[in-house]
Amino acid sequence: MSLSARKNAGQRALQRMGYHLPMPVVLRLLIIAAYIGVPVILGWGWLRWSRHPRERNPLAALSLAGFVFASASALLAAGGVLYAGAIGGFPFYDPRLMRIYSYGLLLSLGAFLLSIPGMWRRNLLRWHAPGLSLAMLVLWVLWASGE
């Protein structure tokens, strides 16, 4: 048996056991960056916001609102993971899971739209809000596309 035939036989055996073919490297890097980047941006942004004086301009308020929405999206993701673990996982296309995905997508998209105007003027969460919201949007899209 040739090397490629053994490799294909091994991949077919993995697929029968429920494993899929490996993802492209770019997608793996994107997922790793999101799983590491989201908690870092979330903690860094809230720490920065709590330690510095509050700014009193409308663009800073929009950045804060976007960051709050993105944080809510991250909390929804963490809560969804904990809930899935508590009930033993979701069945395929479970309506509760679809609702969680839709709320998460809407929260992160709303956060991104709110944070865009805040990027035009210097403020504490100028880059944290769009970064977190975009990372959460990517995560929700990736998770939903895996369904």
Which characteristics define this entry?
single chain; 147 residues; mainly alpha; 5 helices; elongated
Give your account of this protein's structure.
This protein has one domain (23-145). Helix content is 77%, strand content 0%. The protein is built from five helices and no strands. It has helices at 3-16, 25-51, 58-87, 95-118, 128-145. Helix 2 (25-51) packs antiparallel against helix 5 (128-145), helix 3 (58-87) packs antiparallel against helix 4 (95-118) and helix 4 (95-118) packs antiparallel against helix 5. The model has no long low-confidence stretch (mean pLDDT 84).
Q: How many beta-strand segments?
A: 0
Mean pLDDT equals: 84
Count of DSSP H/I helices: 5
> What is the share of helical residues?
over 70%
The unreliable regions are none
Gyration radius, to the nearest Å? 19 Å
How far apart, in Å, are the first and last alpha carbons? 36 Å
Q: State the shape.
A: elongated
* Main sheet attributes: strand count, strand direction, barrel closure: none
Helix-strand makeup class: mainly alpha
> Number of folding domains?
1
Percentage of β-strand residues: under 5%
Order of secondary-structure elements: HHHHH
Q: What would a concise description of this structure say?
A:
The chain is built from 5 helices and no strands.
Task: Describe the protein's topology.
Blueprint: H1 3-16, H2 25-51, H3 58-87, H4 95-118, H5 128-145
Helix pairs in contact: 2-5, 3-4, 3-5, 4-5
